[in-house]
What does this fold into?
Amino acid sequence: MNDSKKLSQLQEIDLELVSKRETLANVQSKIGDNSPVKETAATLEQARQWLAQMEKAQRSAEAESEDTGAKRREVEGKLYSGKVTNIKELGSLQEEFEQIKSKLKQVDDRVLEVMGEVDAAHKSLSSQEQKLKDVETQWRLEQDRLAGESSILQAAIAQLDKKRGTLAAEITPASLKVYEGLRNIMQGKVVAKMEQGKCRGCRLSLSVHELKRVRNPNLVQCSSCHRILYMD
It folds into this structure.
């Protein structure tokens, strides 16, 4: 087997190595990345803060309701005690009583509204707590999978590196130098098959001289794209 054919095999190994190393880098970048857990934990903390705000609002509304109720009872007691006989004063008390009664209804409505919000906040918190548990479980499983995939990729890369070393040792240094020089500027795809009188790299027809030279053991490059040519 001449150098050009061996270089085509070396190219296949190198392309596979590039692909696996890129995949490995991507896998390893995800190992230890717990951003999904942090994001869910942050949402949970927001739910806790919202519940605390609603519970505070509920306590405030209940306290206001109690104070307003006490004021209502006080005014009502004066109004019906019989101690106030002045018509004007009675009218003023009656007006104050109605105002307080109206305010108390509004405050009690607010208490009920806030109680509903507190209940919703409790449910949201419970849902977020469960979601965090689920995300943590999924994250641990994903980390285990990534660790396993990383080990498999590293083993495959080690085998390919060994295979590459063995094959490269069979290629003449001069041919290997040409290959390595082209590989750095042509994204790894530097060896092309000659098929039906054309270079499969650039799809252009080869000259008669090139076609004859490809059949010789010496390294031949396409005059158009400069790829190393080989044939089966």
Observations:
- Helices lie at 3-30, 35-80, 87-168, 173-183, 208-214.
- The chain has a mean pLDDT of 91.
- Residues 120 and 167 are 68 Å apart (CA to CA).
- The radius of gyration is 41 Å.
